[in-house]
Amino acid sequence: MLNIQNLTVSVDDKTILKGLNLNVPAGEVHAIMGPNGAGKSTLGYTLAGRPNYEVTQGVVDFNGEDLLDKEVHERAAAGLYLSFQYPLEIPGVPAMTFIRTALNAQRKVRGEEEMSAPEFLKTIREVAKTLKIDMDMLKRPLNVGFSGGEKKRMEVLQMALLQPKFLILDETDSGLDIDALKVVSDGVNALRAPDRGMLVITHYQRLLDHIKPDRIHILVDGRIVHSGGPELALELEAHGYDRYVNEAA
Amino acid sequence: MAFDLTPLDLFDPSSYPTRRHEEWKYSDLSRALRDAPARADLTHMQAEAGDFGGFYWHCAGDGQLADLQAAVSRAVQSSDGRLYLDMSDIGGEGTIAGYQGEGRITLAAGEHLILLEDYSGALDYAASTVLHFDLAEGATLIRVVILDEPESAVSVRRSTVTTAPGSVFKQYVFATGAKFQRFETHVEHAGHGAQVEMHGAYLLKDTAHFDYTTRVNHAEVDGATQQLIKGLVKDRATAVFQGRIYVEKGADGTDARMRHQALMLNDGAHVRAKPELEIYADDVQCAHGNTIGALDESALFFCQSRGMPEEVARALLMQAFVVPVAEQIEDEALREMVLNWIADKTEGFYAL
Q1: Rounded-to-integer distance, Cα A168 and Cα A43, Å
Q2: A6-20, A104-118, B61-75, B333-347: least confidently modelled range
Q3: What are the φ and ψ backbone dihedral angles of B326, each rounded to 5 degrees?
Q4: Is A73's CB within 8 Å of B299's CB?
Q5: Pairing relation of β-strands B112-119 and B82-86?
Q6: Residue B280: CB partners within 8 Å, gap ≥ 6?
Q7: What are the tens digits of pLDDT across the range B299-315?
Q8: Chain A contacts of B320, Cβ < 8 Å?
Q9: What are the structural domains, with CATH classification, of chain A?
């Protein structure tokens, strides 16, 4: 589904990713763990196509297509969804308007018909209910004045409505208390499907108690230095990243 | 108190203010209009209204806008206090038609008027109009102004407002600029506890010039002034905001707040902002803020990453920047009308 080979990325002339290889097949959830500054967020932003993230080497194949050749919005339409560590506040744009604009823009690129307002309203109402999101909140400008938990729930709401094929969750657990973490994780788990892949970027093992990964990769200094099963998270929690950092150095 | 309006006779070029006049430093009328325009044939007519409800009054600037008060009185008494004032001037082709006029609107104690002023003229013209508003005790005037003039227009729209105890004056100005467009409002806070709001939004492109000048004098205690002006400027357009709030000695309890926020969408666009507070009273709350920046690139990427093409994302964010001004309009029909107008005008904005 997502196949990354030798990905090398510079930001402001500083090389952050240094020949990263990663393969996430459909139906699997992979986690990327690593110390601060290893390049975890850079990987997410690069895949989503953020400007100034310059790919100097490497190939990213997404469902048989060259992902890096696509514009940012085309990657979204192709089914890639990056959930931001800090979702942005969009003053003046009601959450509902934002999501509907995004959804219909994606449909247009895919040559599908736009979703009508009543159909959209019906769909968003159902999803909002399962995520315990009040409809009044959806009339407010997106994320403006929302708590950390509300912002993350809004991210999950968008995932559920946009139905992407591949999810990248960048530090989704940051800013969440235990209750919010459960609601958000349940929302993500509900999206697990045989035809959908996920990449969970996280610092801590905590999130992986809720979203159980099939594989865990350790990212140090721009490269995957070790991969293993879910048990790897527990080992990291007990011993830290030191061993891998020293090996990489 | 006499208002300090720069003398101006459209038909006498020697009266045109130049850059040497401090008040006109950023908006040089003598450069925009070198010769006197030809006096236009004057028309005014009255008809029942369309979408907005209320009464409809067309008046091209025509000397003394004498019958204006009669239209206002009818509106106040018999149509939910709504009056649609069509101030559209129709110019000439090749020749510049000149419109000049002055009118007065008085609201008696407790009267309530919602005024929609529509300046959407056509062809080549120069216009200078002055409207005087006198509000008696407890009177309310809501003024929504649409300045949607042709790009060749030279337009100077000035007004004076005198408040009284307990009166309310709210002004919302929406402008797309012109060859020269200046909207100037002078407010005399002459009443205890009078409440004044003067907001505005501008959407300027190509070589449009728009100047929003406001002068507020707090002469009495407990007066409140609120201002939020937001705008978008692209291409080689120029926005000017000159806001002055003057608080006289003894005008204690004054609460005055002024905010101006502009987005410059490319190099070559100009924003000249001059917010001023001059305070001679002791017990007041006054604040002004002025920010000029570019579109938030992170927000833009966030929108794109959710599937919006760049031009859609830009349009959404630009529209979002100015709509808070329109959202303050309490009258629902008017608010919707203005929001639609903004959506329509921002549509052509995103291509850089």
Answers
A1: 10
A2: B61-75
A3: -70, -30
A4: no
A5: parallel
A6: B247, B248, B249, B251
A7: 999 999 999 999 899 98
A8: 90-93, 141
A9: 2-248 (3.40.50.300)
